[in-house]
Amino acid sequence: MFDTLNAPWRDAYVTGEESQKGCPFCHIVQNPSMDAKHHVLFRSSDYFIVMNRYPYTPGHFMIIPHLHTDNIAQLDAQLWQQMMHQARQGVALLKEVMHIHGANIGINIGQAGGAGIAEHLHIHVVPRWERDTNFMTSIAHTRVYSTDFEALHGRLLAQAGRFFE
Ligand SMILES: [Zn+2]
User: Fold this and answer.
1) What pLDDT was estimated at residue 49?
2) Sheet architecture: strand order including 47-51
3) Which of 39, 60, 120, 122 is catalytic?
4) Cα(126) to centroid of ligand 1, in Å?
5) What is the pLDDT of residues 6-18, one digit of tens each?
6) How far is the CA of 79 from the centre of ligand 1 (A)?
7) What gap in Å lies between CA 51 and CA 69, rounded to an integer?
8) pLDDT tens-place string over residues 51-106
9) Closest CA to 105 of 77, 73, 133, 83
10) Which residues are within 5 Å of ligand 1 (an ion), measured at CB?
């Protein structure tokens, strides 16, 4: 478990449509009408913010550019700034809604960096609580809390407009 905690943004992201072909993030970009189903929290013309369906901790979300690239140098400087701004806003959102004690913000670059979907860059924001190792032990390997996931998505979405801009 400790090892897992040292790689808090190790990717295990899928949209819940494992059978689909191609990049799951591009799938979200191209299907705004399915934002609710995909648990999108915010969408702009250049990037979107989406809950991680297989969260490291509850409330784990990602900020993802629309541009399909694995090269961080290809991200426009202004877009980069906006995404980091949203990461900061996201921490504030998590503090208010989920009373987090801390957070991890991180990017895995390339498969060597631990990215599960290495071909499309994404920024992880992972909520943390004191002693969440105990908490994680209790939910590790159980991905059955889909009701909680839906409820949490609703709670975050209800406040997202006040934080993401
Ligand atoms: Zn993509």
Assistant:
1) 98
2) 40-43, 47-51, 61-65, 123-128, 102-106
3) 122
4) 21
5) 444 445 444 454 5
6) 16
7) 20
8) 998 788 889 999 999 999 999 999 999 999 999 999 999 999 999 999 999 999 99
9) 83
10) 23, 25-26, 68, 120
**C-alpha 130 – ligand 1 centre gap (Å):** 34
Superfamily of domain covering 2-118: HIT-like (3.30.428.10)
Domain residue extents for the chain: 2-118
| Other Cβ atoms within 10 Å of 35 Cβ, number | 16
Ligand 1 centre and the CA of 86: distance in Å?
A: 20
CA–centroid distance, 3 to ligand 1, in Å, is 28
Is 101 one of the catalytic residues?
no
